[in-house]
Amino acid sequence: MVLMVLENRRFWMQSQYYFRGSYGKSAEQILRNNMGLQTTQPESVTKELNEIYHLIDIKRLDDAKRKIEKMRLSIGNDPDLVRSSALIKRKEITGK
User: Fold this and answer.
1) Which domain range does residue 66 map to?
2) For 83, which of 19, 55, 67, 90 is 20 to 30 Å away at the CA?
């Protein structure tokens, strides 16, 4: 497979070696793992998620839960929201 990539208004070709191991992965996984993209989320979503993780770190779990539910209404059941909910549940169970 050869991929044409547009970068800085110039096209270049990427060989199939670069994409080895990408079969069966989601487009997001390929963009992150194979092409080095930091995130596929809008900056505003990333900022909100960081705020949720911060609230969890400082043990303001009820505030974090409210933010998670608010975000679910706009972005759905995103894996990061599932992960943050699991962190909250773990902190509630372990008390740590």
Assistant:
1) 43-94
2) 19
